[in-house]
Amino acid sequence: MKRAGKRLGLVFFPAFDWAISADHPEREERLLYTRDQIVEEGLLDLPGLVEFKPEIANEQDIQRAHICIPDVKSVCTKSHLVAAGGTITAAHKVMNREVDRAFALLRPPGHHAMRLVHGSRGFCTINNEAIIIEHLRHTYGTRMKIAVVDTDAHHADGSQDIYYNDPDVLHICLHQDGRTLYPGTGAVNELGGPGAYALTLNLPLPPQSGDSEMLYGLEQFVLPVLADFKPDIIINAAGQDNHYSDPLTNMNVTARGYARLTELLQPDIVVLEGGYSIEGALPYVNVGIILALAGLDYTTVQEPGPGPAEAPAAVKEAVRRNVGFLQEVWQRRRKIDLDEVFGPGPFYKRQRHIYYDTDEILEKQQEEIRRCEECSGYRVIISAAAKQRRAGKMVAAVIIPWHACKSCRKGAEEAFERLKREGQLELVYLQDVEKDCYNTVPSISV
Amino acid sequence: MSRIIGIDVGGTNTNAAFVQDGNLIAIASCPTNHQDLLSTTTTVLERIASNIPHPEEQSLRLHLSTTLTTNAIMEGRGEPAAVIITHGPGVNPTDLEFPFPSFPVAGAIDHRGRETEPLNAEEVRQTLQRIRRNGIRALAVVGKFSVRNPSHELEIEELVRHEFPEFNAVTLGHRLSGRLNFPRRVVTAFLNASIFRLQAEFASMVKGISGRYGIQDPIFLLKADGGTMYLPESLVRPLETVLSGPAASIMGALALGEYSESHTAITLDIGGTTTEIAVLVKGEPLGERDGAVIANYRTLVPAFFTRSVGLGGDSQIRWSDGSLQIGPEREGPPVALGGPCLTPTDAVIVLEDVPLGDVKKARVELERVGREAGLAAEELARRIIAAFCEKAVREIGLVLKYLNNIPVYTVSEVLAPRELKPEKLIGMGGPAGYFLPKIAAAMGIDYQVLPCAEAANAIGAAVSRPTVAINLRADTALGKLVVPELDLMEDIQRAMLFDVRKARRMALEKAADFAVRTGAYQEAPEIEIGDEEVFNVVRGFYTAGKIFSLKAQVRPGINRVKIPYAWVQYGKKE
Ligand SMILES: [Zn+2]
Ligand SMILES: [Zn+2]
């Protein structure tokens, strides 16, 4: 077989013995047909492709990205640790140049998992992309600039939440318009926090968008932004549910469209996210992505049966409008008056309701981010989660960001001490990624 | 009473062993004449027959391992063959870059065995005419996912049979292996077609032997998986006889070795040019994950896992940039035996004063290279031996690292890693007696140098039994059952009642039929179920059925052989 133009690492982990529940879309069968197609195509024999066994992520790997409530053990299954570990393996193989690119083709997915984790939402519990980003920064340099391009049909609200205020991580998300699909967020005007404004970028695509719309967004918007941002690493969170046959979405992307996207984007690390057309899409999309990553011809990859229709003119127009808006945001990002966006006070405050559909949890969050000239600002989150309508207790989390300035570090530590003494909180967390230090204490009434 | 002659036609020598009821009675050998394998076989047979008590009284079985097909492939002496492929969507067939003519035609089957594009008979005809015009008469037909639904391959076979009888035999991909991997299936079918005629000629010659020396039909041929196949069956699947030599050697190690069933052991066959490494886990040899690789052809032929390292008694030794280089090339025999350059064997001869060849010559060469290196002859010899052992240990380490890192696809397998830690080295081959104790000492494990190692392959051939495997896939959601090896495709009746017990029962029955039909066994042998997978097929939030995939097989038998006390030469334990 022809040699791959790029050396490609593959971490394939279909978790054939793990399901959320027997008939859930995240079930044993999900990557069965993909495995069959990859093996039958002989891709594991492809010269230049190396298959790697996933490592198992440890508690520290998870804590760098998440605050798990009450703790890592209670929210993660072994399967999550293998999927996160497999993503880490993929990243390592690229960083130490064993391969040029790597594809973590594994499940369960992670891009709906936010920084605080009370349970599972959108089939996700821990965020595989965030876990490798933190691992990379700890292993290969804390000033690494990383771009995540999420091409799942669902808005990556989890990854957005984690990197919403991180100036070293650019998060671009292309997805089906949130007004028509779970989780509902991801509008063009969600642009990140005061410490990383316009580094969260969302391109919603109306239902019926297909290859040309997605590729238009990529070429006109994503690629120029990446060229400006100059990331050290590009991660593609490669959900495959934009496919025209996906049962959960209303998009019209094809396997070749995904392959072309991969070819244009040239990601260093690709991580599978969603995609639930397990017979009609995934086998073909994954073969297309592997071929595109390996620099081989993918134009002969085609799903059986008739393909999707071309998008209506109104859809194309809406995509052009959104792209135009975002191009302007990106151009003007340094001239925007942040006081106008976040208010003039020393803290930016927001309140949110977060719904965990998979575990039926409703979380109420209050968040404060310190507006800081020196760094991206420390954060304090108060979170109350009600599980299956039973009110849960309140917890608080203090987050010290990467490269926190002295006064933010001091402010965060003081906030932690203060919260520890607040009676109505059950647990108080301190996440200090830079010192790699994660504390949990029960709050004491005084 | 079981009376078996095992013959291994090797690269240099041909060996024979006579085993009666588990006792080694006689061995014999002669040099191999590659131009005339039949006369080589007859010569060694004559020699061993003269050592067999009362050869006329009882019938003898013959188990034959030859390099015939292996060499034909290595030397590119197969008959020109062409492959018609129905590739369907996926990897561009031109990127498959087969080093032989392949002809893509329309027709596609998907991963669940559903036809997604029909064959175009007219296109197939035109393709066959083109192949015929090129003067090619050996033909293979292979479809992507044909093991899930062989109907396209079977249709083309029918068409050839009726309209193109000049193609002597058509190899169909799905019959050769039930495993997925289309490119390997194409390669496997091509090689099979290309050696078909050669094997047919050889089989008819070998048949002529039967009757002589009391050898009765059946004659069995060794396979790469350490099993045997009935001679007439080798006409259908001649490719399975490739790499039978290394397999026979591992079977010999199993027959002669001292190990327990809980042992993980490494076998080292140290030859002149190479060392072959194989691994026993719980007393059984590991197999290749996908299939044998021969002359860079990746096939689906079931084979023992072996890794060949360019390290042997005759490996070339060079001193360059202040360090010793051993191998991987062999330039010729040791200096002591008139060879052109220094070898590990020369170092052993000088250090241990072994009466082999011209010790003086070896010493002079050691001294010459020693001057280059600034070392005395003895010191250089010691370093050569140390470097040999180091390289062997390193290569064994790489093999174990590879095996320990083979990806697995379930959470439970990832969490329960079975790291291979060898407890014993089993060695054979000329230099093994000297090097094995040192390699074992460096690894800190036990070792055994096999007695009668020179005849291990022949002994291995004698003790092997027929192996048979079929793959059954039942998809109750589609109501289809396939056993590709048997051309079997049927509708599942009462799919709701089809469960894993039924799947196993059917697989066992089909494998037993297959074993008897192919002459492997006269009556149904003991069959095991392996590689079992069961998946629920869920559509629209309800269970639409199940997919069962399983393999039913007769694995290589492990039969110990007792050898006459006088022949036993155990390695000294340190
Ligand atoms: Zn999704
Ligand atoms: Zn600050």
The radius of gyration computed from the alpha-carbon positions of chain A, rounded to a whole number of angstroms, is: 21 Å
SSE order of chain A: EHEHEHHEEHEHEEHEHEHHHEEEEHEE
Largest sheet of chain A: 8 strands, parallel
Q: What is the helix fraction of residues of chain A, given as a range?
A: 25-40%
Got a strand count of chain B?
27
* Percent in strands of chain A: 15-25%
Which structural class fits the helix and strand makeup of chain B?
A: alpha/beta
What would you call the shape of chain B? Answer: globular
Average of per-residue pLDDT values of chain B: 91
Q: What is the domain total for the residues of chain A?
A: 2
Instruction: Quote the CATH topology of the largest domain in chain A.
Output: Arginase, Chain A
Helix content of chain B: 25-40%
Query: What would you give as the CATH superfamily of the largest domain in chain A?
Result: Histone deacetylase domain
Count every beta strand of chain A, where a strand is a DSSP E run of 2 or more residues: 16
* Structure annotation, total helices of chain A: 12
Mean pLDDT across residues of chain A: 95
Oligomeric composition of the shown chains: heterodimer
Largest interface: A-B, 51 and 43 residues
